[in-house]
Amino acid sequence: MAKRFNRGKRMWRNNIAALACCAVIIGLLSGCGGKAETEAPGGDQEATKTAAVETSGKAGSGQASTEEPGTNREETSTKEERTVTDELGHEVKIPAEVNKVFAPNMEDSLLKLGVKPVAQWANGKLGHSYLQEELDGIPLIDFSGGLPSPEALMSYEPDLIVLHTETYAADGTYEKYAKIAPTYVFKNASGNVEKSLSTLGDLLGKASEAETALKNYQQKASEAKAKLSSVVGDKNVAIIRFAPRGVSLMGGNYLCGYVIHQDLGLGKSKLVENENAANLSLEILPQLDADYIFVINAYDQGTERMKEMTESPIWKGMPAVKNGQVYEADNEYWLGSGLIAYEKIVDDVVRSITGQ
């Protein structure tokens, strides 16, 4: 009897020990399973966090995310919003990201920055013809009857509006547009295209693109200037613009005149020595001191006046005409205001005068 009791007691102890051992093993397995879910192979939790952040960044924008957990993206954008002062003294709040810009008559500069506008300037149904290949599909807004109404502009939902001249902002237009989106106004962006391009690049977060475009243009202009200098020397170059309202001699302060007389350093007539432009007639024509002449039929609307002057004996007796140094320029980009137009003008001048 005693033997059976002792044997039973030993069996009970063995069962208790076995149960305790199983409990320990189950606990260990449970703990290992929990770690497997939260740690990278090797048990390095920091490596797992880093990998998760990098993966999140690559999935979004190709860069590692810099946001802290719980950061609100909208709050981050608000913090990055900038306030700048435009050339008329308006304080303008520039959004952290500008995705939709409306900048009529600055399409050339926008394209140089790799940006397409939500809509483009047009005269009737015609936009800037030399840009239409790149602006294919961009809606045209007719400016022939004035600036678009606020209601028409609102339909494009711009993030930023840029007006290239202060006349665009007159008569309450600025106040109306500023209610639609932040509105930046230049006094005259066409007066110094290189400066206005830099400003536009800063507004759109494209400063590096603007810097690269300017360097490339300046290099191109410098090389052209050297070629032209050896041929033209100290002789003058004139630009005559034929339009329905009259004939003018363009000065060196804007558009193609700026390119020829400032960027390329070619001399200009004393008639526009200190002027943006001067009226030109058959009576004044003999005073034109220029050995090279470029003529522009403005938007193909100056044909009648151009024919009247160029068929006159006075015109035919001018040295530039006798020497075959009169060149008809493309009216679209020669009156364009941007580096794309300027580069084309440089090519035209070099090819016409040097034959290269």
TrEMBL record:
GO biological process, alphabetically ordered: iron coordination entity transport
Annotated spans, Disordered: 36-86
The species this protein was found in: Paenibacillus lautus (Bacillus lautus)
Pfam families: Peripla_BP_2
Residue stretches in coiled coil: 200-227
Gene Ontology CC terms, in alphabetical order: outer membrane-bounded periplasmic space
Domain Fe/B12 periplasmic-binding: 98-356
Keyword terms, alphabetized: Coiled coil, Signal, Transport
Listed Basic and acidic residues bias regions: 70-86
Matches recorded under PANTHER family: IRON III DICITRATE-BINDING PERIPLASMIC PROTEIN, IRON(3+)-HYDROXAMATE-BINDING PROTEIN FHUD
Signal peptide coordinates: 1-36
Ranges that cross the membrane: none
The name this protein goes by in its record: ABC transporter substrate-binding protein
UniProt family annotation: Belongs to the bacterial solute-binding protein 8 family.
Location of the protein in the cell: Cell envelope
